[in-house]
Amino acid sequence: MNPTKLKEWETLQEHFKEIKELHLKDLFNQDKQRADLFSIESCGLFVDYSKNRVNERTMKLLFELAERLDLRNEIARMFNGEKINRTEDRPVLHVALRNCSDRQYLVDGIDVMEDVNRVITKMERFSDAIRDQSFRGFTNKPIKNLVNIGIGGSDLGPLMVYESLKHYSLKSLRLRFVSNVDATHFIEQTMDLDPEETLFIIASKTFTTQETMTNAQNAKVWLLKKLKDPNAVKKHFVALSTNYEKVTLFGIDPDNIFEFWDWVGGRYSLTSAIGLSLMIALGKEHFYRLRKGFQMMDDHFEKEPLPRNLPVILALLGLWYNNFFGCETHAILPYDQYMHRFPAYFQQGDMESNGKSVDRDGEALTYQSGPIIWGEPGTNGQHAFFQLIHQGTKLIPCDFIGFINSLHPDKDPHQKLMANFFAQQEALAFGKTNEQLKAENTREDIIPFKVFSGNRPSTCVLANKLTPETLGSLIALYEHKIFVQGILWNIYSFDQWGVELGKQLASRILPELKKTSPIAEDHDGSTKNLIDYFLKHQE
Ligand code: F6P
To answer: Which atom of ligand 1 is nearest the CA belonging to 156?
Structure first.
């Protein structure tokens, strides 16, 4: 259903004309209860969305739109294991991966929880064996270094969570991540490691991804350079994959394959076997707590009525800015250095899911779909791009994510961090007027440059402390937001055909760069020239 053709959309359009003229100051003045009205506490998160350019009627109309688009039913279809990823003919059941209860999740009538729990148990045993040093390398040395080789969802998820929960990690283990096919990445990440103490975790759903396969082969060469005997591979490589055949062909011991299934999307896979490096680094208890946090938000999402449902609210606010205000981007700003890869993780999560331009009937969209996601941790961002958010010509809705308590004992830096956290949201919403500047005796001629228009929206997500549970809930919050937006925009969020063409063309160009094929005549003039120039100047 094209949402823009609905009467509910038309009503929102009419309503938008009123709202766009209103300043957040007016909205707060009109309703003294606004902050309470637009705040929800659930799953360990306190979400205040009152500094958004909405009133009660806006939210009511947005919820009506969601109802009209059958959102409740669509949520149920996902949880019921229906093949909602139609273009790949697959169910989308990442919620089963973090199900810690005895609930069943069915795929083609078969409960997948038995498989999920079997793999989790296998991961736990392996993780314990690395941590207690009963699993040893080929020369009987304990494993002290883990190198996760993967890309996209097989890299960003474990990397982001490892960084976010580093505080809880085993300090005697080093965890490194190699993703880029650029040799620099592998070389720099491994140059100080002893092969005898290193375990490579090859993370690839398909086990065909060019970057990962290249790095995995390089890892084998690197290992065997020191250990000589090909049997060493069995003791220094494990695989996380759905492709048993390709993994065994690579030479990895079938006992060291941690499987997952095609109903797990790459960018939604971090609580599957893809999380093995995390489980080893954090310990199985912390990994379990992370899954519990995810599950808490999954339950909330499945059961809460739409007006109290956090992922739904964030999704509707996103749609409001994207499709009515015409905002092109959305910033995610964690005020926590540990979470510095969180925005990058959801760059893939959101943009690979909702960066689509045809609807579920294959028709070209006549309206905007997914926004550009970006962000950096605070306060660093404040000294870089915040200028544009405060005074630029573009309207950028921002999510501020912060924690009441630090993981470190010294309160002073944390209080400073959080003072900035609250101040930025206040400044964005309420700005600073001409009159205020005059009252401060600001030089007349520079007043225009110092005015802050305000009325710039933000949502505040506050949690007590960065714990595994909180992080799990936060990740699931954004995952489900993305799902909801896909439904609202009538697009398929769980495929990613847009990454294919570049891969195909690269495999055609590669032999040209290796000079095993001539430069194809049917390249466009620019590509032909560039390849030619490259070959002429290559050393
Ligand atoms: O090319 C995009 C993509 O398919 C992502 O969706 C995925 O996360 C990544 O590549 C890695 O894929 P794989 O785990 O199969 O190596």
So the answer is: 8
User: Which positions are annotated as active-site residues?
Assistant: 352, 383, 503
Q: What angle do CA 93, 154, 183 make, to 5 degrees?
A: 165
**With contact defined as beta carbons under 8 Å apart, do 296 and 469 qualify?**
yes
pLDDT digits (tens, 9 = 90+) for 212-270: 999 999 999 999 999 999 999 999 999 999 999 999 999 999 999 999 999 999 999 99
CA pair distance 378, 287, nearest whole angstrom: 26
The residue whose C-alpha atom lies closest to atom 2 belonging to ligand 1 is: 499
Instruction: Using most ligand atoms within 8 A of CB, pick from 154, 155, 242, 264 the residue to mutate for ligand 1.
Output: 154
Ligand 1 atom 1: the closest Cα is on which residue? 499
pLDDT by residue (tens digit) across 314-345? 999 999 999 999 999 999 999 999 999 999 99
Pick from 188, 186, 104, 196: nearest CA to 145: 196
Taking Cα atoms as reference points, which of 236, 225, 282 lies closest to residue 136? 236
Question: And the tokens for 192?
Answer: 């100080």
- Give 203 Cα–ligand 1 centroid separation in angstroms: 10
Which ranges of 368-410 would DSSP assign to H, the alpha helix? 386-391
